[in-house]
Design brief:
The complex is a heterodimer. Chain A is α/β, with parallel strands linked by helices. Chain A is built from 18 helices and 14 strands. In chain A, the strands form four sheets. Chain A has a five-stranded mixed sheet with strand order 2-1-3-13-6, with helices on both faces. In chain A, strand 1, helix 2 and strand 2 form a beta-alpha-beta unit. In chain A, helix 17 runs antiparallel to helix 18. Chain A is globular. Chain B is an all-alpha fold. Chain B has a domain of about 230 residues: MetI-like (MetI-like fold, Orthogonal Bundle), CATH 1.10.3720. Chain B is built from 13 helices and two strands. A two-stranded antiparallel sheet of chain B has the order 1-2. The relative contact order of chain B is 0.14. Classes of the chains: A alpha/beta, B mainly alpha.
Chain lengths: ~425, ~375
């Protein structure tokens, strides 16, 4: 008799325990930690969707964990020590592409999210090219929240008129008008600290190589030492002659300021510059500042995308999944992106909520050839990106295209590009 | 019986900190050494159980002779230049301030606090302030315009100008000559002290080092191509900020030292007819020697390990001012090359030991003598 009672007790306990997660499924609860480097200027967009999420899911509290520091260098370091130490955050910000795949997916640190993509119908609303950047053969690994464009040339229309120059459509045209601008005491192209040099390099490379060969660089089909790849450095060197001497001590915002103040004619920067000029500086898009695809890249959209994934061992998996469902939705993305100055990767986003620049970018996003950015972690893994700074340094110190190309090729081999 | 119990209690008291030190200092030094001789960083570096295999000294060989590690070598040169200028600057400024305060100025306490205050800031704060002041378009550079002079055009932290360039291929020769010089100096000192045998031995060593330098060393191929390194003028900005922060500390050390010199000595010197300069040069400075040495040791290891100041002032990718600690951080935590990062850490540890170990040995010896 006694044995039967205890058996009943055990069965009862087990069924209660089994029922608990089922109850949790219905309503996510607890705390969800979101790890990102979105603070300062970039903070409000994230805070806005967090607020809305907490309103809809009263049981869940969001812990907005940010680590500040240029382009996430410190956040990524903290994240890596946490992951190595077995303390993954609930979910974390990661650039779509190799920064996600080459660091986290190959290390088997992420959970496959293809079930979520099925469930939410995301395979139909996100462009296939973007999904392929988030996927390997074994699954889809993160949810994209925004799209930024890297290949944009910024200027002030009024100033160009005053100086009597038009927007260059190719780098040859730029090199032709640059001496005229210099003669007027204007810096033809403003440039900032080192990573902005890499950013300029990827724009020049895209113009020289075109989208197909650009992709071939990253599949290993086109070596960095091929004549056309060496030519990228040659042209890059010619362009650098027309940039400001104090570039390395300026932030990208200060380089943008030079264009706005009329000290410089053009600046090549990602479209976060549009957010900076329209929101922070209060300029009217199209009038206070103008934009065009960077020279020689018309019809090409060089993209980067921030995304959030689900790390293996993430605390509060259900809560994180609920968060991922939310940030992938049209509603969340149309709250987030207008504030962030980016566009939604969803093909069905409501463009009326966006400013004039974003509307034009969204049009291009749907029609242009899409390629990935180097400077922002899409096409090459972190090992390559870290060492590419050395190749850039070799070029800046020696102005020797062949030496820089050799270094880049050695780095490509070392970091396993095309393997 | 009593003493044995005392000893047990003593051991019990020390044991926890010994265990903690053994694990968290020496254990981790050991682990870093192991990682530096592995290939952690190829492939999936961040896996739960990354595949490591033993590669011996490959990482070190790459750092010193690899085509792609040119940045590490320039970092080493930067670090040595920074250390020399920073320590030298702090000693000179600190000594100057201490000597001035020692003259019995009014409000000495106030000035002492003012000069010592920068030390209470963290290098992060100092670095941020000085980065603003050294902006090429503002701060220090526009000061002359206040009195109608033209603006200074020097790019404090980002200048690419390099002076005193030398070829990395010459490293074996340079090291050989330095070793020979050190032997000659030792020989000279022993000769003067009367240790003839030792002096002759040191002289023979110097000759051997020189012979090696001009025969075998010239044959060593460090790099297949010339690679020039030198002193980057951009470091000047970092040196200024670092000296500003730490010279108050050396001032305090020197001031304490000067106060510690008994007045009888000074009076005796004056009675013997010493001038102010002679008193300073032949009485006070020699008595400050031990303080100079401890200042060099303390500042020296701060300089060798410097990271925060450089990182804040010049950012992660400014090769002109970079130091090994910065590339260690980036190599390991941005590039995921944990083995190479550990190798840089081991090189740094070795350099700091070169500074610290002789100091420890000499303190132990002098204690033993007492």
């Amino acid at each position: 008799m006694k044995a039967r009672w205890s058996l009943l007790l055990v069965v009862g306990l087990v069924s209660v325990l089994l029922a608990l997660p089922a109850a949790a499924l219905a309503q996510a609860t607890g705390e969800v930690e979101i790890f990102s480097w979105w603070a300062g200027d970039e903070g409000p967009a994230l805070e806005a969707i967090i607020a809305e999420f907490e309103k809809r899911n009263p049981g869940v509290r969001i812990n907005n964990a940010t680590v500040t520091g240029g382009a996430g260098v410190n956040a990524k370091a903290v994240l890596k020590t946490r992951m190595l130490g077995g303390d993954p955050p609930g979910t974390f910000q990661v650039h779509a592409g190799q920064e996600l795949i080459g660091t986290w997916v190959i290390a088997r640190r992420m959970e496959d999210l293809s079930f979520l993509f099925e469930e939410q119908g995301w395979y139909d609303v996100f462009p296939a090219g973007l999904i392929s950047l988030l996927s390997t053969e074994d699954g889809v690994w993160s949810v994209p929240v925004n799209i930024h464009r890297s290949n944009v040339l910024w200027y002030v229309p009024e100033n160009l008129e005053r100086w009597g120059v038009s927007v260059p459509r190719t780098w040859d045209e730029f090199l032709a008008i640059a001496p005229t601008l210099q003669a007027k005491g204007v810096i033809p192209l403003s440039l900032g600290e080192n990573w902005t040099a890499t950013h300029l390099w990827e724009n020049v490379a895209l113009a020289v190589l075109g989208p197909e060969k650009w992709q071939q660089l990253w599949t290993g089909e086109l070596p960095f030492t091929a004549p056309e790849a060496v030519a990228v450095w040659d042209l890059f060197g010619q362009i650098l002659q027309y940039t400001n001497a104090d570039a390395a001590s300026l932030s990208w915002q200060q380089a943008t300021d030079m264009v706005v103040n009329g000290e410089a004619a053009f600046n090549v920067m990602g479209d976060w510059a549009a957010g900076y000029m329209s929101t922070t500086l209060g300029l009217e898009p199209g009038k206070g500042f103008g934009w065009a695809p960077s020279p020689g890249t018309e019809g090409i959209f060089m993209m980067l995308s921030d995304s959030f994934g689900l790390p293996v061992g993430s605390p509060n998996r259900e809560g994180v999944l609920e968060w991922l469902r939310w940030i992938g939705s049209r509603e969340a993305q149309d709250i987030f992106n207008p504030l962030k100055g980016s566009i939604s990767p969803r093909l069905d986003s409501d463009l009326s909520k966006y400013g004039p620049y974003a509307q034009s970018a969204a049009r291009d996003w749907k029609t242009n050839t899409i390629v990935g950015s180097l400077a922002h972690g899409v096409v090459a893994n972190e090992l390559f990106m870290n060492d590419f700074a050395t190749a850039m340094e070799i070029f800046l110190a020696t102005r020797n295209s062949q030496a820089a190309a050799n270094a880049a090729q050695a780095i490509a081999i070392q970091s396993g590009i095309g393997r | 019986m009593k003493s044995r119990q005392d000893r047990l209690i003593a051991i019990a008291m020390i044991a926890p900190s010994l265990v903690l030190l053994a694990v968290f200092v020496y254990g981790f030094i050991g682990q870093t050494l192991f990682v530096s001789m592995s290939d952690w960083g190829r492939g999936a570096a961040l896996a739960v159980n990354p595949e490591l295999s033993f590669v011996g000294l490959d990482n070190f060989r790459e750092l010193f002779t690899g085509f792609l590690d040119v940045r590490f070598r320039q970092d080493l040169v930067n670090m040595l230049a920074f250390s020399v200028l920073f320590v030298g600057g702090c000693l000179v400024v600190g000594l100057l301030l201490a000597t001035l305060l020692e003259q019995g100025v009014r409000g000495e306490g106030f000035f002492r606090t003012v000069f010592l205050f920068p030390m209470s800031l963290s290098f992060i704060v100092t670095g941020t302030i000085w980065r603003w002041m050294l902006q090429p378009r503002g701060g220090v550079n526009v000061l002359p315009t206040l009195v109608g002079l033209p603006r200074i055009e020097f790019a404090w932290l980002t200048s690419r100008d390099q002076v005193w360039q030398w070829n990395w291929q010459d490293v074996p020769v340079i090291l050989g000559v330095l070793a020979a010089l050190a032997c000659v100096v030792m020989a000279g000192r022993w000769w003067l002290a009367g240790g003839r045998k030792r002096a002759v031995a040191a002289g023979a060593l110097a000759a051997a080092a020189l012979a090696w330098t001009f025969t075998a060393a010239t044959e060593i191929e460090v790099l297949p191509f010339p690679e020039y390194h030198g002193f980057n003028l951009a470091l000047a900005g970092v040196v200024v900020a670092a000296v500003w922060q730490m010279s108050g500390y050396t001032m305090a050390l020197f001031l304490a030292g000067l106060r510690g010199i008994p007045d009888e000595l000074r009076e005796a010197a004056r009675v013997d007819g010493c001038s102010w300069w002679q008193l300073y040069r032949y009485v006070e400075l020699p008595l400050l020697k031990p303080i100079i040495w401890s200042a060099v040791i303390i500042l020296g290891h701060i300089a060798l390990k410097s990271f925060d100041l450089v990182f804040v002032m010049a950012g992660p990718d400014n090769a002109a001012t970079s130091v090994p600690a910065v590339s260690m951080y980036l190599t390991a935590f941005r590039g995921n090359q944990f083995a190479k990062g550990a190798a840089i850490a081991v090189v740094l540890l070795a350099l700091v030991s070169v500074l610290i170990v002789p100091y420890l040995v000499s303190t132990f010896r002098s204690r033993g003598a007492e």
